[in-house]
Amino acid sequence: MELTGYIAEDLRARIRSGDELPCKLTLPALAKHYGVSLTPVRGAVARLVADACLEKLPGGRLSVAPLKRWSRMRPTPIAPPPTARDWDRALIRDVMLAGLSRETVHLREEALARKHGVGRSVIRQCLGRLAGAGLIEHLPRRGWCVHPLLEDDLAAFLEVREVLELKALELAKPHIRKADLLPMLEGNPAVEGDQPPHLDNRLHDYLIEKSGNRYIQIFFRQHTATFFTSAFDHAAPEAHVVAEMAAQHRAILEALIARRWGRAREALVQHIRAQKPILMRILRTRTSESRPEVGR
């Protein structure tokens, strides 16, 4: 559920239950309570007024509508609000697009907050986490900047990834279970007829988790699961590329199930190295696009 919907349903549930509202029934007070800008609050209030849960009084003031107008309305399930991880995922795409520009791009908190309909404090916290992961840089009194992602950076990342993922495989051996691998194998089926290819990418996270090495886990959490995964997803690779990657996953999984460790290592190395030309093509293609709005 989007932020506007969450605010509307949360307020609706409080009104139904007769609970005291979390703050004064004004747009600024509601925005402060939910940690968002005025935009999603206005949308939520408009929905509740249209549903006769709230009413506008003379002078623009808001009030809970009389009970008889809404007491018989059917309740709506409330989805959890966006988490810090949700906002990080949203901003990762902005950072990724900025990194594919040909020059350094400055990110502005105000523009990002307006774009995502959230308060600047939320944006600032997210950018701080991305800076901690090394994806952006904070310049005192100048804001945040994203440096161009160069082909040398990508090549260096893939080299480190290969070393660490092979180490993760070695450490994970005693903890790998066939029952865990079979669903992943089913999630990477061979393409038959006009069936669209499907890629189940859980294998990498599984090996990293089973390695038990928190430093390896931190590296992949900060890099693979954020910037580079987002870049790959954003590129929407062709069907034949997805099919090839699924086949590579099957080769790794089949070797692991058979406990043929040497073959599993070889298949994993081939899979990681096969991603280099794909990601390089993404870089060359995306750097020709215009600079994203958030950098202006």
Structure description:
This protein has 296 residues and is mainly alpha-helical. It folds into 3 domains: 68 residues, Winged helix-like DNA-binding domain superfamily/Winged helix DNA-binding domain (Arc Repressor Mutant, subunit A); 65 residues, Orthogonal Bundle (Arc Repressor Mutant, subunit A); 136 residues, GntR ligand-binding domain-like (Four Helix Bundle (Hemerythrin (Met), subunit A), Up-down Bundle), CATH 1.20.120.530. Helix content is 62%, strand content 5%. The chain contains 14 helices and 5 strands.
Fraction of helical residues: 55-70%
Distance between the termini: 29 Å
Shape: elongated
CATH fold call of the largest domain: Four Helix Bundle (Hemerythrin (Met), subunit A)
- Major beta sheet, specifics? 3 strands, antiparallel
Number of domains: 3
Subunit organisation of the chains: single chain
CATH homologous group name of the largest domain: GntR ligand-binding domain-like
Query: Average pLDDT value?
Result: 80
Helix/strand-derived category reads mainly alpha
CATH class of the largest domain: Mainly Alpha
| Beta-strand percent range | 5-15%
Regions with pLDDT < 50 over 5+ consecutive residues? 290-296
> What is the level-2 CATH architecture name of the largest domain?
Up-down Bundle
The strand order across the widest sheet is 3-5-4
Could you tell me the number of beta strands?
A: 5
With helices defined by DSSP (H or I, 4 residues minimum), what is the helix count?
14
Q: Roughly how many Å is the radius of gyration?
A: 24 Å
- Run of helices and strands: HHHEEHHEHHEEHHHHHHH
